DNA sequence: ACGTCTGATGAGAATCATTCCCAAATCACT
DNA sequence: AGTGATTTGGGAATGATTCTCATCAGACGT
């Protein structure tokens, strides 16, 4: 036991874990500062996992991929969502549990979701500019007619993913 | 005790409960038949409540408004959803619990949802025909490019409803 | 009308995800 | 390198949803 440093294991041994890209790390730091949140190893790991996935993950997926304990993963995801660094997105209706992905300012671009109603997996897709423009117009109209102050919109397509289709048919 | 019939109380005394419209009842009967599901008083009450509400309700709202016991309400909503008579819709992301409304063939028309991110209430709104057409086109494209067999789409606008806006500002 | 038989009911137990708790450890920052 | 506010984590607590199963209602044939 040569100088075994007893540190709380923040990055347990295991399959190679992705690293958070420096660009995202810097932006995240800025976003966390005003809330006095630190970019700890666990938070870094959680964000790295989300960045690498490129699609919304369940809490369970994050727990397994990041190595963070369950309670820490839940807490961090909630805090990061609150800080606007990650986005909480809905999975398949009826499936319990939200999913999380890097918020748009920290990932690539505006996108929408393809949700598999069978296995619950969620993939990203990019909407056409034309659709996006029309949605914007509709949203502006809703502000006027409904009394709702619209902050964002969700356009998800639901169906069966390729895997589920080939699996049982 | 003049002929007090002892029947299980299926419509407990209480505030006037809405009745299910005959047209919907007939259509529902047809939909339930192949599954050997009966249109019992509780199911009728649940459906009547959904029909009267005209917006997606939480299980709790259904329980209170219909008088059905919790376990019965959950069971019936799940069965009716399975049968395609009611639709399970997502509420605010992060809010636990799906909501239910009459499925489109049994209610009025195709519509979308306005979700309040603060109190979770969900209202219906009608999309413009133009938007709807463009969505259809986009969905058709997704089938080709993603491998997903799209069954339906969700276009929800999220924001703060009039009540929440006036309440805390 | 009456029996019969299948589907429905409902109270509580069981399950499961999520949140809470708080003493102890850690890390970001000077 | 020190240090104090923040984070951690294991387990308990909470809450929603589902399950169980003995009992009941209702449709149907006779």
Keywords:
disordered N terminus; about 170 residues; alpha+beta; about 40% helix; homodimer; three-stranded mixed beta sheet; three-stranded antiparallel beta sheet; globular; DNA-binding; 6 helices; 6 strands
Task: Tell me about this structure.
The structure is a homodimer of 169-residue chains. Chain A contains 6 helices and 6 strands. The first copy, chain A, has helices spanning 22-32, 41-53, 59-66, 70-82, 129-146, 162-167; strands at residues 57-58, 86-89, 99-102, 112-116, 122-125, 149-160. In chain A, the strands form 2 sheets. The first copy, chain A, has a 3-stranded antiparallel β-sheet. A 3-stranded mixed β-sheet of chain A has the order 5-4-6. In chain A, helix 2 (41-53) packs across helix 3 and helix 3 (59-66) packs across helix 4. Residues 1-14 of chain A have low confidence and may be disordered. The A-B interface holds A 81, 88-90, 93-94, 98, 114, 116-117, 123, 125, 127-128, 130-131, 134-135, 138-139, 142-143, 145-162, 165 and B 81, 88-90, 93-94, 98, 114, 116-117, 123, 125, 127-128, 130-131, 134-135, 138-139, 141-143, 145-162, 165. Strand 6 (149-160) of chain A pairs antiparallel with strand 6 of chain B, so a sheet runs across the interface. The structure holds a DNA duplex (30 and 30 nucleotides).
């Amino acid at each position: 036991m040569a100088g075994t440093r007893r540190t709380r294991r923040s990055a347990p041994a295991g399959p190679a874990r992705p690293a958070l890209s420096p660009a995202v790390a810097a932006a995240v730091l800025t976003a966390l500062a005003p809330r006095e949140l630190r970019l700890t190893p666990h938070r870094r790991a959680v964000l790295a996992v989300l960045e690498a996935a490129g699609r919304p993950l369940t809490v369970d997926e994050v727990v397994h991929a990041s190595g963070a304990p369950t309670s820490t993963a839940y807490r961090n995801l909630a805090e990061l969502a609150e800080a606007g660094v990650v986005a909480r997105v809905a999975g398949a209706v009826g499936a319990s549990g939200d999913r999380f992905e890097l918020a748009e300012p920290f990932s690539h671009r505006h996108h929408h979701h393809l949700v598999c109603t069978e296995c619950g997996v969620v993939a990203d897709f990019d909407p056409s500019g034309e659709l996006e423009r029309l949605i914007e117009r509709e949203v502006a109209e809703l502000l006027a007619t409904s009394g709702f102050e619209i902050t964002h919109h969700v356009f998800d397509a639901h169906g069966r993913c390729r895997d589920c289709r080939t699996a049982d048919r």
